[in-house]
Design a protein that fits this description.
Order of helices and strands of chain A: HHHHHEEHHH
Shape of chain B: globular
Oligomer: heterodimer
Distance between the termini of chain A: 29 Å
Helix content of chain B: 40-55%
Number of helices of chain A: 8
Largest sheet of chain A: 2 strands, antiparallel
Largest sheet of chain B: 5 strands, parallel
Shape of chain A: globular
Number of helices of chain B: 16
């Protein structure tokens, strides 16, 4: 749809220049942040990529948001998690909490690694990013519930969820769990690291919540046909 | 099943690390693996654990501090992040760097009949001044010197929970908590000397308590720890005794006075008197007695000091030169001293630190082990040791 609209529009730049807005004219192209995309020589490009490059020379490009970096250490999933944890726009604090969490996880695992006997060393996962991704995977629910009205009553109907929705639910559960169910004196990064380590081995409160969701879906299996009228 | 996949990925990174080591030594991978295995360790680690035997060829390499030494010598002296690191890695490895090697070589050649020299480590924030001081103090300890280590002079100037008027001199103030804690740590560090050194003067603490002339230093220290009220005066007495006895021909010990954050002694303090006016540094007994020890009156030892902006009060953030941090009065009192600059890591030292962190499995991000990741770490930290530590902590 965007392609057809951009075909109709003539090239134009507005009088008021939009720099940090999130709604752009569909004529604008997405920015390319990765360094590898620019270091490819001419010969390796396929036909579409050559076309893209020529288009980039003519069309205006959206401003890149503050969250994207060309750093080799950037991780889109982790950036999304940071954004969800951010409150009142305090991204610096959210980033600090996450980096302290990763450091904490790494410290605990590396300590265990160095104290473990030779045979057990290979089983201990020390990479905090791998643990985070594993924990997120383990927390993602397979089916979700939707509230569908039929004959005056609302039924909780089990439905398949899209990948984005599953990821969002997993992250939201982790964050709410760590915000609410912790002791007054425990710091956020400490609680987060405990939850992520537990989730990566399928223990802990977030996994329990996911399993409860699955049980509810299984219990309401009879209403599954309410999805379609 | 997920665990098997994870361990497979780990095995891949382990072989990748081994190939990085051998390529770092300039050896072909086709060479016999058995021969090249002990070699990678020598690029960033050295077996020479005695600071007295370390020389320029060990520069940039890590040596292991023996754990009994750490428990006695540094009950409170090491920086907080280093303590965490030695708990995580299960070993304490310090890098041999040029500033501390320089000071150690001067200490080896000192003439103990001349007045003691003052060495000052200065540099940018996070460049390794406290660690250089700890390395030099470790050398003094292994040589059997008596070590008087004040880990941070700034804590005597701020957050004082109890401030008492001094019993000895009406215009001064006591800090019983800090003094008793310092005496406890002094006792742990210098156990053998406590039973050898005898006091030369009679001290009266209250109407009924006094320490006779000729009693052991250990008794004096115990008196200060058990009677917290007079602990600051005990500290003053201990410092006076050691200063008087250190150069004498009959005493066979050498004294090393190590003060971290010496610019606090001439700075401002946040401690307030009852009428809300700030306390001058010279009005505190601990500071007053310590300053007497930093003069060049005594012989038979050395004074090692460090500047510190991080804990200091009312100093600009980017000040690091001696003139800026000590102020006019401090510089005039410390003058003449031997300034030793502590720079950021050189390329070789950075390389060594990077390899050490990979060896200890601290750099876990797969991209951090590539060339691109290394260049990015160099760019972000500018080879500053503490910044590099903070960046690599979350990678």
């Amino acid at each position: 749809m965007a392609a057809s609209i951009s075909g109709l529009l003539k090239p134009w730049t507005p009088r008021v220049f939009l720099v940090r807005w999130s709604r752009y004219n569909p004529y604008y192209l997405e920015p390319e942040v990765r360094k590898e995309a620019y270091s490819k020589p001419e010969a390796e490009l396929s036909a579409e990529e050559k076309e893209q490059r020529e288009l980039k020379a003519l069309r205006p490009i959206k401003a890149a948001t503050n969250g994207v970096t060309s750093s080799v250490f950037s991780d889109p999933v982790l950036s999304k998690f940071v954004n969800m944890m951010m409150m009142d726009g305090n991204k610096i604090l959210a980033n600090e909490i996450i980096s302290k969490t990763l450091e904490n996880i790494k410290r605990k695992q590396v300590e265990k690694y160095h104290k473990a006997p030779e045979g057990k060393k290979e089983e201990i996962e020390c990479n905090p990013y791998a643990i985070f991704h594993q924990a997120l995977e383990n927390c993602k629910p397979v089916v979700g519930l939707a509230s569908i009205q039929k004959g005056g009553k609302f039924y909780q109907v089990p439905i398949p969820l899209s990948d984005d929705r599953r990821r969002h639910l997993a992250m939201k559960w982790i964050i709410t769990e760590c915000r609410e169910n912790k002791h007054r004196r425990t710091l956020m990064y400490e609680k987060l690291s405990q939850e992520l380590l537990a989730a990566s081995v399928r223990e802990g409160n977030v996994i329990k919540k996911k399993l409860e969701m699955h049980k509810m879906a299984e219990a309401n299996r009879a209403y599954a046909h309410y999805r379609w009228t | 099943m997920a665990l098997q996949r994870l361990s497979f990925r780990l095995r891949q990174t382990v072989t990748h690390v081994r190939s990085l080591h051998t390529s770092g030594c300039g050896q072909q991978q086709a060479a016999v693996v058995v021969e090249s295995e002990p070699e990678p360790l020598s690029v960033f680690r050295t077996q020479e654990n005695d600071p007295a035997c370390q020389s320029e060829k060990h520069m940039g390499q890590y040596y292991a501090l023996p754990s009994p030494h750490i428990r006695t010598l540094f009950p409170h002296g090491l920086p907080g992040r280093f303590e965490q690191q030695l708990k995580t890695f299960n070993e304490a490895c310090m890098m041999v760097r040029k500033p501390s090697l320089e000071v150690i070589s001067y200490l080896k050649k000192t003439d103990f009949s001349k007045p003691s020299l003052r060495y000052l480590f200065y540099g940018l924030a996070g460049s390794g001044k406290t660690m250089s001081l700890c390395h030099t103090v470790h050398f003094c300890y292994t040589q059997g010197w008596l070590v008087l280590h004040i880990p941070d002079a700034h804590i005597w100037m701020k957050n004082c929970k109890e401030l008492m008027p001094s019993s000895y001199n009406e215009s001064r103030f006591d800090q019983p908590l800090q003094a008793s804690e310092w005496l406890r740590n002094f006792r742990i560090t210098n156990e053998p000397f406590l039973s050898k050194i005898k006091t030369k003067q009679r001290y009266v603490w209250t109407k009924r308590e006094f320490t006779e002339e000729g009693s052991l230093l250990g008794q004096l220290v115990d008196q200060g720890i058990s009677r917290v009220k007079s602990s600051s005066d005990v500290v003053g007495a201990v410092l006076k005794e050691l200063r008087l006895q250190s150069g004498q021909p009959e005493s066979d010990f050498r004294m090393a006075v190590a003060v971290d954050g010496v610019n606090a002694l001439w700075g401002r303090s946040t401690i307030k008197k009852k009428d809300k006016s700030p306390v001058e540094p010279d009005e505190l007994t601990l500071v007053y007695n310590l300053k007497k020890l930093l003069t060049k009156d005594w012989t038979g030892g050395a004074i090692l000091t460090t500047l510190s902006q991080t804990g200091s009060l009312y100093t600009p953030k980017f000040a690091y030169l001696p003139q800026e941090l000590l102020g006019k009065r401090g510089f005039d009192s410390m003058d003449p001293f031997i300034p030793v600059s502590v720079p950021n890591y050189s390329e070789k030292e950075f390389e060594s630190c990077y390899l050490y962190l990979i060896d200890r499995h601290w750099l876990q991000h797969p991209q951090s082990r590539t060339e691109e990741g290394k260049k990015e770490i160099i760019f972000l930290s500018n080879r500053n040791p503490s910044m590099m530590d903070r960046i690599c902590a979350s990678l």
